[in-house]
TrEMBL record, chain A:
Residues 53-232 form the Cytochrome c domain. Gene3D superfamilies: Cytochrome c-like domain (1.10.760.10), Cytochrome c1, transmembrane anchor, C-terminal (1.20.5.100). This is Cytochrome c1. The lineage of its organism: Bacteria, Pseudomonadati, Pseudomonadota, Alphaproteobacteria, Maricaulales. It is found in: Membrane. The keyword Signal applies. The keyword Transmembrane helix applies. Its main location: membrane. Residues 1-28 form the signal peptide. Keywords: Heme, Iron, Membrane, Metal-binding, Signal, Transmembrane, Transmembrane helix. Pfam families: Cytochrom_C1 (PF02167). The chain crosses the membrane at residues 260-279. InterPro entries: Cyt_c-like_dom, Cyt_c-like_dom_sf, Cyt_c1.
Automatic annotation (TrEMBL), chain B:
This is Cytochrome b. Residues 13-224 form the Cytochrome b/b6 N-terminal region profile domain. Keywords: Electron transport, Heme, Iron, Membrane, Metal-binding, Respiratory chain, Transmembrane, Transmembrane helix, Transport. Belongs to the cytochrome b family.
């Protein structure tokens, strides 16, 4: 009777758990026509990492394509050269190919010393001030500056985009259910509208967008960027690269977190084993 | 059961302190030599786990408070700054946000433990009521804390919950304005929620002390429900239960760590990474998972009951679902504590547990959607479940006490533990 009851309780628990698990992905679909396509990312799982060259390509796509409309407000230039960021290490431009082996990449601990980060920052003009005379002035960017927004405010952004507001991208991967899979699916989800669907002027059919009609024109056209590392810029490649960059931007400590987590779990596991033997030893003194 | 003190000061300074402030004596009698039933199983370790989580929440919370800015124009950005720029901010923030979920998970297991083993029955009614007070305070604290990151779900969750109070007759409007500090959820709401979110955990800590005090007068219950009769029924708390609780705490922390480090957002909602916008309502406003069963009860009342509107009825049902726990010790009429010896009640308890989980499932789904493709809608399902929830307390438990024939209980804890084993074995204390 007791065992039967216990088994039934476990069975009920398992059924409920299964119901939650099966219901969760359905509930997680962002209300679009299709659930996002599952994609294998380098940063997934407990041992996932960001591949530096992919982040660099993704950054290039963001800078050359997305940045004309989408802000990256939680990112500063310095972030590009911190931790697992795209430019903490980069190939040495002075290394000669005839050396016959891959030259060591250049790495910078402090992004303020990082020539690539400084160069990216200095290409932007930042409004600063007021100066001693009380006037605002323009100066080239430094690593400490925030990424400048393409528009002065939301109203200006809407006015330039047919009323639609291009969302900030620094949290986009976290702010959409489906995460990186959803953003990638959306970027690749532009197709001919199904028979009978009337797409309103100024909108585009996208099978992954809630409601199916999106104001953003298909952003990734074959070969719209020329990758510095020679990778072929297919639509699929660009989508994967830019989403990887955006996944990093929304969670720049992801790799640190995974590494620390492994150490913490090993520590707790060893601690648990020791406590288990201590428990067995202490309780062996009494009948129980 | 706490009996005479067994503390003996060993050193001069201990004797000096003991005659002035016997705090070492209090600790010794409460947590070292406290007589504890020798048959406690792992369900009894959740009290210790909860104490640890209260400490984790307070410590991480105080650190977060040093970096957080309670202002509608800066709150969202300040949380991002914590996660990105504050050294180990990503860890502290993730521990605090996930810690709330694990705190609730542990408290739910602790409460179901109490329901199954009849921990609320005499002489532990006050202990149980203090527990329900802690649970209510936790719900308030959790809700207030969820508003602080000022994402879309923070804002709209605050809107929905504060509007619940507006549904109360006569005083509702006034209470709602008082909660808002204005005529809508805004900056004044955020600052007062922040102040209260900082205050309430210390109130919880205070009630926890009362809870432990109320525990240490009658002593722990135990899986048999049979009261402690002799010293042979008990073991000193230390080392027997410090080591057992310690093991359970570390195992629970491992599950916690898996979420903190590998799935920090799994228990949250993506919309809360969008800054609060009063002009855009999210398509589905859902609370955190630990409120979902009550959210389902709130939405299950879709009909007017006499003069009570459906909205007010929902609010009353939701608060009633918690309030009923306060009188549970007097609703359950059976003198038998543990459901091990209640062959009928345990089945109703099992159904009750499934009902609570299913209510949570209903709360997470759109009321008008069908349940797993069946013609049954979630709202109808939730209505049936709500009916059972209340019937369990108001009909099943009161009636079963009279109709059920309990199984034979062991004569003592010692007899239950030793069973057929040689009764000559003595605890080596």
């Amino acid at each position: 009777m007791n065992t039967l009851f216990r088994n039934l309780a476990v069975l009920a628990g398992a059924l409920i758990g299964a119901a939650f698990l099966t219901a969760a992905p359905a509930a997680a679909a962002p209300g679009g026509e299709h659930a996002p396509e599952d994609h294998a990312w380098t940063f997934e799982g407990p041992f996932g990492t960001f591949e530096r060259t992919q982040l660099q390509r993704g950054f290039q796509v963001y800078q050359e394509v997305c940045a004309s409309c989408h802000a990256l407000e939680h990112i500063s230039f310095r972030n590009l050269g911190e931790g697992s960021g795209p430019f903490t290490c980069f190939p040495d431009p002075d290394a000669h190919a005839e050396d016959g082996h891959h030259a060591e990449p250049l790495c910078y601990e402090n992004p303020n010393d990082n020539p690539v980060v400084r160069q990216i920052a200095s290409a932007y003009m930042i409004t600063d001030g007021p100066d001693d005379a009380g006037d605002m002035f323009e100066r080239p960017g430094v690593p400490a500056d925030r990424w400048p927004s393409p528009f002065a405010n939301e109203q200006q952004a809407r006015a330039s985009n047919g009323g639609a507001y291009p969302p900030d991208l620094s949290l986009i991967v976290k702010a959409r259910s489906g995460g990186a899979d959803y953003v990638r699916s959306l970027l690749l989800g532009y197709h001919e509208a199904p028979e009978g669907l009337d797409v309103r002027p100024g909108l585009y059919y996208n099978e992954y967008f809630p409601g199916g009609q999106i104001a953003m024109a298909p952003p990734l056209l074959e070969g719209i960027v020329t990758y510095a590392d020679g990778t072929e810029a297919t639509t699929e490649q660009m989508a994967e690269d830019v989403v990887t960059f955006l996944a990093w931007a929304s969670d720049p400590h992801r790799v640190d977190r995974n590494r620390t987590g492994l150490m913490v779990l090993i520590y707790l596991f060893v601690f648990a084993v020791l406590l288990w033997f201590a428990y067995k030893q202490v309780w062996s003194r009494v009948e129980h | 059961m706490s009996g005479p003190s067994t503390y003996e000061p060993q050193t001069g300074i201990e004797r000096w302190l003991d005659s002035r402030l016997p705090i070492a004596r209090l600790m010794w009698d409460s947590f070292v030599d406290f007589p504890t039933p020798r048959n406690l199983n792992y369900w009894w370790t959740f009290g210790g786990i909860l104490a640890i989580f209260l400490m984790i929440q307070i410590i991480t919370g105080v650190v977060l408070a040093m970096h957080y800015t309670a202002d509608v124009s800066m709150a969202f950005d300040s949380v991002q700054r914590i996660r990105r720029d504050v050294p180990f901010g990503w860890l502290i923030q993730s521990m605090h946000a996930n810690g709330a979920s694990f705190f609730f998970l542990a408290v739910y297991i602790h409460m179901f433990r109490g329901l199954y083993y009849g921990s609320y029955k005499a002489p532990r009614e006050v202990l149980w009521i203090l527990g329900v007070v802690i649970y209510l305070l936790m719900m308030a604290t959790g809700f207030l804390g969820y508003v602080l990151p000022w994402g879309q779900m923070s804002y709209w969750g605050a809107m929905v919950i504060t509007n619940l109070f507006g549904a109360l007759p006569v005083v509702g409007e006034g209470i709602r304005e008082w909660l808002w500090g204005g005529f809508s959820v805004g900056n004044a709401t955020l600052t007062r929620f922040y102040a209260l979110h900082f205050l309430l955990p210390f109130v919880i800590a205070g009630v926890v002390i009362l809870h432990i005090w109320a525990l240490h007068v009658p002593g722990n219950g135990n899986p048999t429900g049979v009261s402690v009769k002799t010293k042979k029924d008990t073991l000193p708390f230390h080392p027997y239960y410090t080591v057992k609780d310690g093991f359970a705490i570390v195992v629970f922390l491992m599950i916690f760590a898996a979420f903190v480090f590998y799935m920090p957002d799994a228990l949250g909602h993506a919309d809360n990474y969008i800054e609060a916008n009063p002009l855009v309502t999210p398509s589905h406003i859902v609370p955190e998972w630990y409120y979902l069963p009550f959210y389902a009860i709130l939405r299950a009342i879709t009909f007017d009951i006499g003069p009570i509107s459906a909205q007010l009825g929902g609010v009353l049902a939701m608060f009633g679902a918690i309030a009923i726990l306060f009188v549970l010790p007097w609703l359950d009429t059976s003198p038998v504590r543990s459901m091990r010896y209640r062959p009928v009640a345990r089945w109703f308890f099992l159904i009750f547990m499934v009902v609570c989980l299913c209510l949570g499932w209903c709360g997470a789904n759109n009321p008008d959607d069908p349940v797993l493709g069946t013609p049954l809608k979630f709202v109808t399902f939730a209505q049936i479940l709500t009916l059972y929830y209340f019937a369990y307390f108001l009909v099943i438990l009161p009636v079963l006490g009279f109709t059920e024939r309990p199984k034979e209980r062991p004569a003592s804890i010692e007899a239950a533990v030793l069973g057929n084993k040689s009764a000559t074995a003595q605890p080596a204390e």
